[in-house]
Design goal:
The protein is of the alpha/beta class. It folds into two domains: 272 residues, Ribokinase (UDP-N-acetylmuramoyl-L-alanine:D-glutamate ligase); 105 residues, Adenosine kinase, small domain (2-Layer Sandwich). It contains 18 helices and 18 strands. The strands form three sheets. Strands 7-6-5-1-12-13-14-15-16-18-17 form an eleven-stranded mixed sheet, with helices on both faces. It has a five-stranded mixed sheet with strand order 3-11-8-2-4. Strands 9-10 form a two-stranded antiparallel ribbon. Strand 5, helix 7 and strand 6 form a beta-alpha-beta unit. Helix 2 crosses helix 4, helix 12 runs antiparallel to helix 13 and helix 15 packs antiparallel against helix 18. It binds adenosine monophosphate (AMP) and alpha-D-glucopyranose. The site of adenosine monophosphate has 16 residues, from strand 15, helix 15 and helix 18.
Length: 453
Amino acid sequence: MVWDALYSSAFESVRGRIGGVGKVLLAYNTNIDAIKYLDGNDLERRVEAVGKDEVLHYADELPRRIENVGQLLGSILWSIKHGKAAELFVESCSTRFYMKGWGWEELRMGGQVGIMANLLGGVYSVPVIAHVPQLSRLQASLFKDGPIYVPKAGDGKLRLVHPRDFAGDEENCIHYIYEFPRGFGVFDFEAPRENRFIGSADDYNPNVVMRPEFHEHFEEIAEKAELGIISGLQTLTGKNYREPFEELVRHLEILNAREVPVHLEFAFTQDETVRRALVDVLGHFHSVGLNEVELASIMEVMGEKGLAGKLLADDPVDPIAVTEAMLRLAERTGVKRIHFHTYGYYLALTDYKGDFVRDALLFAALAAAAKAKLGDVRSIDDVVKAMDVPVNEKAKTVEKRLTGEYGMKNGIAEIDGYQLSFTPTRIVARPKSTVGIGDTISSSAFVGEFALH
Ligand code: AMP
Ligand code: GLC
């Protein structure tokens, strides 16, 4: 089968070359994920203890933030009912205390930066410089061995050290992740697909609090970087986004002056003002990564309501609507690469050409399947083991439509001077966990592309 052959050769090419990539700067969000696999009876008892009246209405409409236990339980029910991921800031101390008492099964590295640092540095051996807003001992212990660095200032000098050698004793930023499988039942709700709700008991990442080393020594940090990936802006609000955005733009200007290509990992941004502000700064980025919900939410603020609706109407997502939306976004902002991922396939729109764009997507799809299957990817050999996960059957109709509409061949087409690259993905039927797959996809594809180019 043609895709199997393309997958194998893409993997071999990326594996052979990824060691040549220089330092990747990762900023801004790193935290600790406390993972709780939900139990239906336990959840029902907890809802009844608080009172169904206090809880159930949040299953229809999410609160803006969590101020009590009823809102927490209701938000978890919202995610289950809709099969959708959501993340809310937990403001109240008593609710944070309740979540701690409820417990977890596993502590894992969290935040886009933390997850990408462990994958790029710990698995692919690509050196990374990470922004970690609070370096507690627990946070440091979750970093893998490998070329993973944080800047440490002292005696007027800046050094790069492994997070464990930073010897920090700062706060724990804990995000409680409530995971459920497809078909999970509670009261008369049944989860249409596996997913999770996240309650962030964290005052740093949601506000994008930047470390003093990054304020004071960013020029020096940027000098060491060959690539950049920015994430963690999704939880900002109309009230608190201005200051972090000013700093972000300053960082981007420094990186752009040095011609360091920077990728933005978009993530779902609830606040419309922040979403608009992100579209306005997108031209400073080389690349952006997003899924269908995120792309639709961008079309909404660009006034493309019809396209936004089309992006959410079908399963699998209509690839012609995706391509049109990506073209509008590229033309409006000037961003050179847009990487779209959805359940079953990926597309990339680039203002440059070459098979390496598609091959990097194939490598990323293999890494995503390994992550879904194992929960944690331990070595690059785990990635190739995902070759036994079948290529998604539904992607065939997507491929046919792209072939009919744009004359696509072997996953590559040309449209209005751009290249469109397509990859059918491998879907793991019963994933171990769903957190961090998107981060695995975007960082593997972006860094993989530079390895090949
Ligand atoms: P996000 O939507 O950013 O959370 O990223 C989730 C992405 O992970 C989806 O767009 C899919 O491409 C991918 N994905 C989700 N579930 C699976 C699975 N079971 N097997 C392989 N890839 C998956
Ligand atoms: C968000 C969450 C974090 C989680 C990550 C996974 O950044 O805040 O807890 O690990 O998404 O992508």
